[in-house]
Amino acid sequence: MSSPPPPLPRARELVVCSSGTSWDGIWFPMRHVALHLSRQIPVLWVDPPISYLTPLKDRNTAAALRRPRLRVVQPGIIRLTPVTPPGVSRPIMREAARLAARDAVRRALRRIGATVRAVIVDSLADMLDVAPGARRVFYGTDDFVAGAELMGVSRPWLEQAEQRQLAKAHVVVGVSPVLVDRWRAMGTEPVLVPNGVDAGHFADCDNAPLPQDVHLASPIAGFVGHLSDRIDLTHLEAVADRGISILLVGPRQATFEIKRLDALLSRPNVEWVGPKAFADLPSYLRMIDVGLTPYTDSAFNQASFPLKTLEYLAAGRGAVSTDLPASRWLDTDLLSIGASPSRFAEATAAALDVVRTDGLAAARRAFARQHDWAARTAELAQLCGLPPGPAGDLAGVAAIASLKGVDR
To answer: Which domains are present in the chain?
Structure first.
């Protein structure tokens, strides 16, 4: 007979962060928000649902299945990984998975025994009303409908899910001006809370350990992110054509422009080092002189707010982006914009010619600090109805930090 599960900390209140990406995945906006919120009030982090068959496609999820579904991952944060039936792409099974995921969250909340102050959902998952009485915040980080083809999901289904989120939410947040305008046109009153940056994480990158897998000649233009359909290879090719060293850091989408990307990576002035942990990124930003944001001119990208641009500036590096509304919203001459491949390459070359003086690096870092995740999270906390500053359930945070006997 199996023993009962170990007790969880008894926080008085908490916030639910239902994310479209796993805690183990890339650090997207919700991860930063959850970390900052957890210093003020306990957070229940909810992973996207997985099935017992998911590890066959994604090995990274296997560890989540081997561990308790509800466990403490760090001070102030309890993580839940809902397990649902397989085959969620089929309409009938999709409904079964939706109900199973909602039930998993409700059971977790009963076990924790805390009052839920707010539920923040950054995807189209039907989780906003999973805790009756809580403030419901739809934290829109992307134009999900515009990304239908990119995600391989039915556009009508995404449109229906988007309308449901807007109808259920007490507060609608968009991370870019394009998202805010879109949802305002649909009859809501969205609030603009742009993406931020962990400025402190990158502030001392010049003293970070030197990576052992970079062998390019300086100066170096670098890209940190997912090599996927969102990236315009033509812009990177134009930069490489000028003989500029290019360092690529991040995972590669298996189906993305296979022959063209292979050809780019085979050039002697281009080096790809694969995916790296967030903790290691300062070492790779130390190696570059200018950071690149070469996004395609798609509706999905036009509504986005890339994290990487601010991360480059937080590291004291120059930054060059394609023509994105979010880049123009930043409104700074510390960021160069090149819409066409030739202008993008010209902007990169010009940025590399600029000497990175201590004063210029300090100005870039100071600009990035204005957009730190601490400030962004404070805005979201206010929209969630939480008191300003670290005046929340600190006893609950401490209880989670000191908890024994629950898998970490």
So the answer is: 13-196+373-401 (3.40.50.11010), 199-369 (3.40.50.2000)
